[in-house]
Each structure stands twice: as structure tokens, then as C-alpha cells.
Amino acid sequence: MDSTASPASPAQSPTGRPDGRRPDELRPLRFQNGIAPHAAGSTLIECGNTRVICAVTVDNVVPRWMKEQGVEGGWLTSEYSMLPYSTLGRKPRDISKGKLDGRSQEIQRLIGRAMRAGVDLKKLGTRTLWVDCDVLQADGGTRTAAITGSYVALALAIQKLQTAGQLDTDPLITPVAAVSVGVVAGAPTLDLNYAEDASAEVDLNLVMTGAGTFVEVQGTGEKGTFSDAQLAALLALGRAGIAQLLAAQQAALKAA
């Protein structure tokens, strides 16, 4: 099932962005749920030209370390990959190199942390939820799109487990979404595409919950430093963008 969300319409501002968006405007956002029918929950998230399949599968076991340490409940983890044709030049699969590249490892750990922030693991029972994110097309913001889409896939999987009587209580605590912000040509800018990300003076990824708390803030001065005032402006811009993403997630789940 498709769900399309149009961002809110803030006051008009001058724009020099490649796609004509205002500095405070998200890319067009779309969820296509049920894209992977064998998964417990799945969605294809499209943020402009970035497209990521997010799917959740269930294993009725927990990691060995949980058993050894007597940790109650379940676990949630993630894997992330970019398909060879997702970028302009072919990206070799990690398996062809014999190891996971550092960027993919960092991102899948980030996705796992983000999703665990929204779940009461003790209520999962003795099972592991696997969140798999596969990038079909990359145009900037693949990690933030993966997090935003993963929550939708996760919520759909939880609904399926509850419907099947495999969960007595809902383990979801809060929705989680993510967005990129940056300083581009001296201006705070929301939801960067690849061209903007490549030229940004400051690049920041923001992961937040529906309760308005932070899961993670990844910020770097790519071509210079940034001030307290610039950081505050970026955080405010990111908060506004995430509020729209959270609303779009709920619309996608309602449509399902």
C-alpha cells in the first residue's frame, strides 16, 4: 500500500537548491508497504531520488551473549547494504571484498541503535528482530532514510506478531525518525541530496524519537568549523523536519 506525504509549507524563502526546494523543505516522501512479502514487515521508502527497502524478519532465538549473561527479553539488530547499481559507478558487493566496509558497518550499527531506542526489548520475548536495509538508489541521506523507513517496517512487523498472538503487549515505546541537515553555501539546509552533501561546509545527521529526545547527533565541519548559533539553527531545522517525518510514518502505518 502506498502512502504519500507532502511536507508542510513554511514561509517562502529564496532558494538556490538543485531541485528548487526551500532551505527548510524535505524532499518528496513516499512509503510503499509490503514490498517484501516474506518479511514480517517491510516498506520501500523514497526520499526524492533516494530509495531504500527496509524489511524486518524474526528469529525465535536470541544472541548467545544474552543467554550467557542472563539478559531477559529479546534483541534487535540491523544490516545495511548498497546494491551495486545504487550509485553512478558500480559499487562492488562487500562479499566480493571478503569483509564489510567501514561505512556500512557504522551505518548498520546506527540503525540498530536507533530502532532499539524505540522498543522495550524485554517485551519482545525470546526472539531477535532483524532489520535489513538495502539501498536501491542513492542520492544522499541513505542512512537517515533507512532509519525512517525501518521504523515503519518494524511497526508493521510488531502488528503482525500481535495479530498472530505471538506478543501479549506492544513493545513499541516511541517512533524514531532521522534527517540530514547541513550548512550549504553558508545557509542552514534541510534534507541534503548528494550534490548538496558533497559541497556542504557542515554535515549533520539527526536521529530523534517521537517524544522529542535525541538518539544520536552526528555532526562534522566538512570544510570549516561551525558556531553555537549555527548548531542551534541546524538542530531547530532538523527538529522541524523530523516532526514531518514522524507524521508521515503514522500516515503510512494508518494506510496499512
Total beta-strand segments: 10
CATH class assignment: Alpha Beta
Judging from the principal axes of the Cα atoms, what is the shape? globular
Q: Helix count, per DSSP? A: 6
Average pLDDT metric: 92
Which percent band covers the strand fraction?
Answer: 25-35%
- What is the name of the CATH architecture? 2-Layer Sandwich
Instruction: Give the N-terminus to C-terminus distance in angstroms.
Output: 6 Å
Radius of gyration (CA) equals 18 Å
Query: Runs with pLDDT <50, length 5+?
Result: 1-14
Largest sheet: 6 strands, mixed
Helix/strand structural class:
alpha+beta
Q: Look at the structure and name the CATH superfamily.
A: GHMP Kinase, N-terminal domain
| Whole-number tally of structural domains | 1
Determine the oligomeric state from the structure.
Answer: single chain
Write down the secondary-structure element order.
Answer: EEEEHEHHEHEEHEEH
Widest beta sheet: strand line-up = 1-2-3-4-6-5
Helix amount, in percent?
25-40%
CATH topology: Ribosomal Protein S5, domain 2
